[in-house]
Design goal:
Blueprint (H helix, E strand, L loop, with lengths): L7 E5 L5 E5 L4 H9 L8 E4 L5 H12 L3 E5 L4 E5 L6 E2 L1 H4 L9 H8 L1 E5 L12 H9 L2 E6 L2 E6 L9 E3 L5 H12 L4 E5 L5 H12 L3 E3 L5 E5 L7 E4 L4 H13 L3 E5 L7 H9 L3 E5 L2 E5 L10 E2 L11 H9 L4 E5 L8 H8 L3 E5 L2 E5 L8 E3 L3 H13 L3 E5 L2 H4 L5 H7 L3 E5 L1
Parallel strand pairs: 2-15, 3-14, 6-7, 10-11, 18-19, 22-23
Antiparallel strand pairs: 1-23, 1-24, 3-5, 4-5, 7-9, 8-9, 11-13, 12-13, 15-17, 16-17, 19-21, 20-21
Helix pairs in contact: 1-2, 1-7, 4-6, 5-6, 6-7, 8-10, 8-12, 10-12, 11-12
Bound molecules: uridine-diphosphate-N-acetylglucosamine.
The site of uridine-diphosphate-N-acetylglucosamine has 20 residues, from helix 1, helix 5 and helix 6.
């Protein structure tokens, strides 16, 4: 019998991080942008693509659909070419990466048909896809849920038509999926209450390079005038603001000094404000951000997550570690996902005093955390455990780090460059 060992991180904590880190391209921009290549048979060259498990899953999905993909991880470049020859995104791939749902819009827009398995991904709540489905119906897709698949057909000569879509709730991938579908629909589509995330803007900018006519991306009203055909393009993926925030917080939690290069400070306003409130000395210089926490005490900060430009839910777990180590009491409220506190019990195993009350965590700061064996439950939860391990006294073992590999490029080497003691063990 083959034994399958799941990788863990072993972290020896207590060392102040000190150094510089290059920020990678954003996972949440790379995935929709990879999938938007479905909309053309021409060559799409993507640069600054992070080397991540989710990116590899996405390439596999595109190859399954018939695209030719040349992946050069050492250059951060992917070249995609050729028309899709299939319209089925299988359960095997979709279950590991929820973002695969974003194949639905481009597939039905390009081929007139799509079958995409209902998604899996991070276990952070129910995460329905009703808004994606409702929007596509508004554009003339007929949709059935059958055998665990969403089966969509564009009625009316196989082409979607424009629609007026009012999103009941702000959804990032929902906005992206519908924006992609609308690029090839006949006529004008308006998406109201659209997500404002920088990754939506990056996708729109890539689509516009491909010949799409999208206006208003980054505002709550996006207008897309459908075109007959999209062409190829070259596009560099925007910097990962969540990776940036994660390294800044790791520096602060360990009372060190960390500079993140090649990032986009303007996408991080809400987070940087909270880090300043936490008493970090934050300086911004062009595309670099430095957090200096040497000889400074962490102050507690109250945080409420919200869609962009509010405080990102993807930074909620990491900032909770700062509050766990702060000099006082604070609260962290999660408003986007209903089950995103799985890191709390693990942080408490490390000596934190955190209490979940409904969708809020009350954080009573402690002087230090202690190394322990802890378990990752999802991508950002695992980042919080790694930060806690770096700040804690003694050795921390973080289990199931495959979650972290989904979203953080070269995590061990980047942390080691900053002076952290982390290794992958089996
Ligand atoms: C994206 C990000 C994820 C981030 C999240 C919120 C990607 C690949 N992932 O996820 O990292 O945590 O935005 O910033 O970009 N909802 C519905 N119906 C739908 C769709 C969503 O009710 O059809 C709800 C969700 O359950 C959630 C809220 O809307 O409560 C926001 O979710 P959404 O923005 O869609 O998250 P994702 O796009 O999946």
């Amino acid at each position: 019998m083959t034994s399958f060992k799941i990788a863990k991180f072993q972290i020896e904590g207590g060392k102040a991080l000190d150094g510089e880190v290059q920020i990678s391209g954003a996972k949440n921009a790379a995935l929709p942008i990879l999938l938007c290549s479905i909309l053309t048979s021409e060559k799409v060259v993507l640069k600054n693509v992070p080397d991540l498990a989710d990116v590899k899953t996405c390439i596999q999905l595109l190859e399954d659909l018939g695209k030719k993909c040349l992946y050069e991880p050492q250059n951060g470049q992917i070249t995609l070419e050729g028309a899709v020859t299939s319209f089925v995104a299988s359960y095997e791939l979709v279950k590991t990466m929820r973002a695969s749902i974003m194949a639905l819009g481009p597939l039905v827009a390009y081929t007139g048909k799509a079958e995409v398995s209902l998604p899996g991904g991070c276990a952070i709540g129910a995460r329905p896809v009703d808004l994606h489905i409702k929007g596509l119906k508004e554009m003339g897709a007929q949709i059935r849920l059958e055998d665990g698949y969403i089966k969509a057909t564009a009625v009316g000569l196989g082409r979607l038509h424009g629609g007026h879509i009012i999103m009941d709730k702000v959804s990032v991938t929902g906005t992206e999926n519908l924006m992609m579908a609308a690029t090839l629909a006949e006529g004008e589509t308006v998406i109201e209450n659209a997500a404002l995330e920088p990754e939506v803007i990056d996708l729109a900018s890539c689509l516009n390079k491909m010949g799409a006519k999208i206006e208003g991306a980054g505002t709550s009203r996006v207008v897309i005038n459908g075109v007959e055909k999209l062409n190829g393009c070259t596009h560099a993926i925007v910097a990962d603001r969540i990776e940036t925030g994660t390294y800044l917080i790791a520096g602060i939690a360990t009372h060190g000094i960390v500079t993140c290069h090649n990032t986009m400070p303007s996408t991080l306003d809400a987070l940087l404000q909270k880090l300043r409130d936490a008493n970090a000395l934050i300086t911004v210089d062009g595309t670099s951000i430095t957090a200096d926490m040497r000889n400074r005490q962490i102050h507690p900060v109250d945080v409420v997550t919200a869609p962009h430009p509010g405080f990102p839910t993807d930074m909620q777990a990491q900032i909770t570690v700062l509050n766990a180590l702060a000099s006082g009491v604070s609260s962290v409220t999660e408003t986007i996902f209903e089950n995103r506190f799985m890191h709390i019990a693990e942080l408490n195993r490390m000596g934190a005093h955190l209490e979940i009350r409904g969708n809020t965590v009350i954080c009573e700061g402690v002087a230090s955390l202690k190394g322990a064996q802890v378990m990752s439950s999802d991508l950002r939860a695992s980042a919080s455990l790694v930060i806690a391990g770096l700040a804690a006294e003694g050795i921390t073992i973080v289990d199931r780090i495959y979650h972290m590999d989904r979203g953080y490029e070269h995590i061990e080497s980047k942390i080691r460059m900053l002076g952290g003691d982390i290794k992958r063990i089996y």
